[in-house]
Amino acid sequence: MYLVINCPSCGKIIMASTANMTRSCPHCSLKIDVRSAKVLARSRTTQEAVEIIQELKQRKSKDSPVTFKKFRA
Question: Is residue 50 part of a domain?
């Protein structure tokens, strides 16, 4: 399973595998504890996680409120 999370340091939206305990942010290099990260969405495949991230970035860029009704949380 994959998680879509926010980096607590830079705020970027990233994907993390639940198979790993930590994930380094590709933007600021912070080492994130996946178990305690704020989860925005969950997905079964990397492709689905990428689609979720694209959707969230698109919504964020439009300054619209972000809702997660479409995604499993």
Answer: yes
Q: Per 3-state DSSP, what percentage of the chain is helix, strand, and coil (rounded to 5)?
A: 25, 30, 45
pLDDT per residue rounded down to tens, the chain (73 residues): 999 999 999 989 999 999 999 999 999 999 999 999 999 999 999 999 999 999 988 887 776 555 555 555 4
Position 51 in a domain: yes
Which of 66, 1, 65, 10 has its CA nearest to residue 40? 66
- Residue 17 domain boundaries: 2-61
Q: Is residue 18 part of a domain?
A: yes
> In sequence order, which ranges of the chain are alpha helices (DSSP H)?
46-61
Residue 24 within any structural domain of the chain? yes
| Count of alpha carbons within 13 angstroms of residue 25, beta-carbon side | 17
Q: What is the pTM of this model?
A: 0.77
